[in-house]
Amino acid sequence: MSLWEYANPRRFMAVSGRVLPWLGWLTGLTLAIGLIWGFFFTPDDYRQGSTVKIIYLHVPAAMIAINAWGMMLVASLVWLIRRHHVSALAARAAAPVGLTMTAIALATGAIWGQPMWGTWWVWDPRLTSFLILCLFYLGYIALWNAIEDTDTAADLTSILCLVGSVFAALSRYAVNFWNQGLHQGASLSMDAKENVSNVFYIPLLFAIAGFILLFLTLVLLRTRTEIRSRRLVALKLRERMAHA
To answer: Which of 106, 174, 197, 212 could form a disulfide with 125 if both were Cys (CB 3.0 to 4.6 A apart)?
Structure first.
Protein backbone atom coordinates (compact mmCIF):
# COMPACT_ATOMS: atom_id res chain seq x y z
CA MET A 1 0.00 0.00 0.00
CA SER A 2 1.39 3.39 -1.01
CA LEU A 3 1.73 6.15 1.57
CA TRP A 4 0.12 8.55 -0.92
CA GLU A 5 -3.19 6.69 -0.59
CA TYR A 6 -3.69 8.47 2.73
CA ALA A 7 -3.65 11.78 0.86
CA ASN A 8 -7.10 10.83 -0.39
CA PRO A 9 -9.59 12.61 1.93
CA ARG A 10 -11.93 9.61 2.15
CA ARG A 11 -9.09 7.25 2.97
CA PHE A 12 -7.70 9.68 5.53
CA MET A 13 -11.07 10.16 7.22
CA ALA A 14 -11.67 6.40 7.43
CA VAL A 15 -8.25 5.55 8.87
CA SER A 16 -8.05 8.52 11.26
CA GLY A 17 -11.56 7.77 12.53
CA ARG A 18 -10.43 4.29 13.58
CA VAL A 19 -7.14 5.45 15.06
CA LEU A 20 -8.31 8.48 17.05
CA PRO A 21 -10.15 6.70 19.92
CA TRP A 22 -7.10 4.55 20.70
CA LEU A 23 -4.77 7.49 20.27
CA GLY A 24 -6.87 9.58 22.64
CA TRP A 25 -6.77 6.98 25.40
CA LEU A 26 -3.02 6.45 24.97
CA THR A 27 -2.46 10.22 25.05
CA GLY A 28 -4.38 10.63 28.30
CA LEU A 29 -2.62 7.70 29.96
CA THR A 30 0.88 8.80 28.94
CA LEU A 31 0.33 12.43 29.90
CA ALA A 32 -1.13 11.43 33.27
CA ILE A 33 1.86 9.21 34.05
CA GLY A 34 4.42 11.79 33.02
CA LEU A 35 2.86 14.85 34.68
CA ILE A 36 1.64 13.21 37.89
CA TRP A 37 4.92 11.35 38.36
CA GLY A 38 6.94 14.45 37.54
CA PHE A 39 5.06 17.01 39.63
CA PHE A 40 4.14 14.90 42.64
CA PHE A 41 6.66 12.08 42.94
CA THR A 42 10.03 13.66 42.12
CA PRO A 43 12.17 15.53 44.65
CA ASP A 44 13.09 19.21 44.54
CA ASP A 45 16.38 20.04 42.86
CA TYR A 46 19.25 20.99 45.21
CA ARG A 47 19.78 24.29 43.34
CA GLN A 48 16.49 25.12 41.64
CA GLY A 49 14.12 23.77 44.26
CA SER A 50 10.55 22.98 43.15
CA THR A 51 10.80 25.26 40.09
CA VAL A 52 12.73 22.52 38.31
CA LYS A 53 9.42 20.67 37.87
CA ILE A 54 8.42 23.19 35.20
CA ILE A 55 10.66 21.03 33.02
CA TYR A 56 7.73 18.64 32.55
CA LEU A 57 5.78 21.35 30.73
CA HIS A 58 8.51 23.55 29.30
CA VAL A 59 10.70 20.97 27.58
CA PRO A 60 7.88 18.96 25.90
CA ALA A 61 6.07 22.14 24.81
CA ALA A 62 9.28 23.62 23.35
CA MET A 63 10.06 20.40 21.50
CA ILE A 64 6.57 20.23 20.01
CA ALA A 65 6.63 23.94 19.10
CA ILE A 66 9.76 23.44 17.00
CA ASN A 67 8.88 20.05 15.54
CA ALA A 68 5.33 21.12 14.72
CA TRP A 69 6.82 23.67 12.35
CA GLY A 70 8.97 20.87 10.93
CA MET A 71 5.84 18.81 10.32
CA MET A 72 4.20 21.84 8.67
CA LEU A 73 7.29 22.23 6.47
CA VAL A 74 7.08 18.63 5.26
CA ALA A 75 3.34 18.92 4.64
CA SER A 76 3.85 22.21 2.79
CA LEU A 77 6.52 20.67 0.56
CA VAL A 78 4.17 17.78 -0.23
CA TRP A 79 1.51 20.31 -1.20
CA LEU A 80 3.89 22.32 -3.40
CA ILE A 81 5.26 19.20 -5.12
CA ARG A 82 2.33 16.75 -5.20
CA ARG A 83 -0.66 19.11 -4.72
CA HIS A 84 -2.35 16.82 -2.16
CA HIS A 85 -5.00 18.84 -0.34
CA VAL A 86 -4.87 16.75 2.83
CA SER A 87 -1.23 17.73 3.36
CA ALA A 88 -2.06 21.46 3.04
CA LEU A 89 -4.99 21.08 5.44
CA ALA A 90 -2.82 19.11 7.88
CA ALA A 91 -0.27 21.94 7.88
CA ARG A 92 -3.06 24.43 8.54
CA ALA A 93 -4.43 22.22 11.32
CA ALA A 94 -1.03 21.96 13.02
CA ALA A 95 -0.38 25.71 13.17
CA PRO A 96 -2.70 26.63 16.11
CA VAL A 97 -1.41 23.63 18.06
CA GLY A 98 2.17 24.71 17.42
CA LEU A 99 1.34 28.29 18.38
CA THR A 100 -0.19 27.11 21.66
CA MET A 101 2.88 25.02 22.43
CA THR A 102 5.13 27.99 21.63
CA ALA A 103 3.14 30.20 24.01
CA ILE A 104 3.34 27.55 26.75
CA ALA A 105 7.09 27.22 26.23
CA LEU A 106 7.61 31.00 26.39
CA ALA A 107 5.43 31.39 29.50
CA THR A 108 6.92 28.46 31.40
CA GLY A 109 10.41 29.53 30.33
CA ALA A 110 9.82 32.97 31.83
CA ILE A 111 8.51 31.45 35.08
CA TRP A 112 11.46 29.06 35.23
CA GLY A 113 14.01 31.69 34.25
CA GLN A 114 12.99 34.43 36.69
CA PRO A 115 14.39 32.81 39.86
CA MET A 116 17.40 31.47 37.95
CA TRP A 117 18.35 34.60 35.97
CA GLY A 118 16.70 37.26 38.12
CA THR A 119 14.56 38.45 35.19
CA TRP A 120 11.52 37.27 33.26
CA TRP A 121 13.10 37.84 29.86
CA VAL A 122 16.51 38.28 28.26
CA TRP A 123 17.35 38.78 24.60
CA ASP A 124 19.08 35.42 24.55
CA PRO A 125 19.62 33.95 21.03
CA ARG A 126 17.33 30.98 21.66
CA LEU A 127 14.62 33.04 23.36
CA THR A 128 14.70 35.67 20.64
CA SER A 129 14.50 33.11 17.82
CA PHE A 130 11.68 31.37 19.69
CA LEU A 131 9.77 34.64 19.95
CA ILE A 132 10.22 35.20 16.21
CA LEU A 133 8.97 31.65 15.60
CA CYS A 134 5.85 32.55 17.60
CA LEU A 135 5.31 35.57 15.34
CA PHE A 136 5.70 33.34 12.28
CA TYR A 137 2.98 31.05 13.66
CA LEU A 138 0.70 34.07 14.06
CA GLY A 139 1.51 35.28 10.55
CA TYR A 140 0.92 31.81 9.09
CA ILE A 141 -2.52 31.52 10.70
CA ALA A 142 -3.45 35.09 9.73
CA LEU A 143 -2.44 34.48 6.11
CA TRP A 144 -4.61 31.36 5.87
CA ASN A 145 -7.59 33.30 7.21
CA ALA A 146 -6.98 36.35 5.02
CA ILE A 147 -7.20 34.54 1.65
CA GLU A 148 -10.50 33.05 0.48
CA ASP A 149 -9.12 30.77 -2.24
CA THR A 150 -7.73 27.76 -0.39
CA ASP A 151 -5.22 26.77 -3.07
CA THR A 152 -3.75 30.27 -3.19
CA ALA A 153 -3.66 30.37 0.61
CA ALA A 154 -1.92 26.99 0.69
CA ASP A 155 0.69 28.20 -1.81
CA LEU A 156 1.51 31.41 0.07
CA THR A 157 1.52 29.82 3.52
CA SER A 158 3.80 27.05 2.24
CA ILE A 159 6.32 29.66 1.12
CA LEU A 160 6.00 31.40 4.51
CA CYS A 161 6.61 28.04 6.19
CA LEU A 162 9.84 27.61 4.23
CA VAL A 163 11.10 30.99 5.43
CA GLY A 164 10.03 30.40 9.04
CA SER A 165 11.92 27.10 9.12
CA VAL A 166 15.13 29.10 9.55
CA PHE A 167 13.91 30.37 12.93
CA ALA A 168 12.60 26.94 13.90
CA ALA A 169 16.11 25.61 13.34
CA LEU A 170 17.65 28.53 15.25
CA SER A 171 15.28 27.87 18.16
CA ARG A 172 16.66 24.36 18.36
CA TYR A 173 20.37 25.00 17.74
CA ALA A 174 20.94 28.60 18.89
CA VAL A 175 22.73 27.42 22.03
CA ASN A 176 25.23 25.59 19.82
CA PHE A 177 25.76 28.60 17.55
CA TRP A 178 26.09 31.29 20.23
CA ASN A 179 27.71 30.15 23.47
CA GLN A 180 27.20 33.51 25.17
CA GLY A 181 23.46 32.94 25.66
CA LEU A 182 22.04 32.38 29.15
CA HIS A 183 19.77 29.55 28.04
CA GLN A 184 21.01 26.12 29.08
CA GLY A 185 21.83 23.37 26.63
CA ALA A 186 19.54 20.51 25.72
CA SER A 187 17.95 18.60 28.61
CA LEU A 188 18.00 15.46 26.49
CA SER A 189 21.07 14.43 24.55
CA MET A 190 22.71 11.40 23.01
CA ASP A 191 25.51 12.10 25.49
CA ALA A 192 24.34 10.69 28.83
CA LYS A 193 26.52 13.19 30.73
CA GLU A 194 24.41 16.08 29.42
CA ASN A 195 21.04 14.62 30.42
CA VAL A 196 19.17 15.55 33.56
CA SER A 197 19.32 13.14 36.50
CA ASN A 198 17.44 9.86 36.07
CA VAL A 199 15.00 10.81 38.83
CA PHE A 200 13.75 13.58 36.51
CA TYR A 201 14.69 11.96 33.22
CA ILE A 202 12.29 9.01 33.15
CA PRO A 203 9.08 10.94 33.97
CA LEU A 204 10.26 13.60 31.50
CA LEU A 205 10.34 10.96 28.77
CA PHE A 206 6.73 10.05 29.59
CA ALA A 207 5.75 13.74 29.52
CA ILE A 208 7.42 14.22 26.14
CA ALA A 209 5.72 11.10 24.76
CA GLY A 210 2.39 12.40 26.08
CA PHE A 211 2.87 15.77 24.40
CA ILE A 212 3.81 14.09 21.11
CA LEU A 213 0.70 11.94 21.23
CA LEU A 214 -1.39 14.98 22.18
CA PHE A 215 -0.02 16.86 19.17
CA LEU A 216 -0.85 13.95 16.85
CA THR A 217 -4.35 13.64 18.30
CA LEU A 218 -5.11 17.34 17.96
CA VAL A 219 -3.70 17.54 14.42
CA LEU A 220 -5.78 14.56 13.31
CA LEU A 221 -8.91 16.06 14.87
CA ARG A 222 -8.29 19.47 13.35
CA THR A 223 -7.44 18.01 9.93
CA ARG A 224 -10.71 16.07 9.96
CA THR A 225 -12.50 19.32 10.83
CA GLU A 226 -10.74 21.14 7.97
CA ILE A 227 -11.79 18.41 5.51
CA ARG A 228 -15.39 18.56 6.69
CA SER A 229 -15.37 22.35 6.44
CA ARG A 230 -14.02 22.14 2.89
CA ARG A 231 -16.73 19.64 1.95
CA LEU A 232 -19.40 21.90 3.44
CA VAL A 233 -18.18 24.86 1.38
CA ALA A 234 -18.22 22.70 -1.76
CA LEU A 235 -21.79 21.55 -1.04
CA LYS A 236 -22.98 25.13 -0.50
CA LEU A 237 -21.34 26.17 -3.77
CA ARG A 238 -23.10 23.33 -5.62
CA GLU A 239 -26.42 24.37 -4.14
CA ARG A 240 -25.91 27.97 -5.26
CA MET A 241 -25.01 26.84 -8.77
CA ALA A 242 -28.04 24.54 -8.87
CA HIS A 243 -30.39 27.38 -7.90
CA ALA A 244 -28.74 29.91 -10.19
So the answer is: 174
